[in-house]
Design a protein that fits this description.
The protein is mainly α. It has 2 domains: 57 residues, no CATH class; 109 residues. The protein has 7 helices and no strands. The longest helix is centred in the C-terminal third of the chain and has 25 residues. It is flat.
Length: 166
């Protein structure tokens, strides 16, 4: 651990507050969020805390892989599941945030409640799938994937991923 690791949480909290002030609120004109107006700034701020915390969690592994020049110890199954999982999450958040027909279908199935997908959710999904792809690319680049590589995804992982993608 770094001697400055105690600064991580305060830095995330301050950066989140700056993002909340600098970027527009996640509220749309037709926002049906069941929160009283007094809580919406807190909701936005916590959304940025969540975005920064989860986004920053990807970097130590990616930087360690670069520093070591290998991904041994990082399961290729994990890297593949991450890519597919965050791919599904990105499709979900992008669909709910950008498609009016999907939002109206959601509302009709949920007693008129609108989907609570914020801009932070969309940005995180895009960021997560991008860094998951980088992680899987590192596995392929540094150690190879498949029969000639030093690491291979398990058969179970391959079957599960094929079923999900299909």
């Amino acid at each position: 651990m770094s001697k400055y690791s105690f600064l991580t949480l305060p830095t995330i909290l301050v950066a989140s507050y700056i993002l909340q002030l600098a970027l527009p609120s996640s509220d749309g004109e037709g926002d049906k969020t069941p929160l009283p107006d007094v809580y919406k700034p807190l909701h936005d701020w916590l959304g940025w805390v969540y975005f920064l915390s989860w986004s920053l969690s990807f970097y130590p592994q990616l930087l360690l892989n670069i520093h070591r020049g290998t991904t041994l110890g990082l399961s290729p199954d994990y890297a593949l599941y991450n890519l597919i999982g965050f791919g599904c999450y990105a499709v979900y958040t992008l669909s709910l945030s950008s498609s009016s027909s999907i939002r109206s279908s959601y509302e009709s199935h949920h007693n008129g409640s609108s989907p609570l997908v914020s801009s932070q959710d969309v940005l995180f999904a895009i960021h997560a799938i991008t860094l998951s792809a980088v992680g899987l690319a590192q596995v392929a680049h540094y150690d190879g994937i498949g029969t000639r590589g030093r690491q291979t995804p398990s058969r179970n992982c391959f079957v599960i991923c094929c079923c999900i993608i299909r």
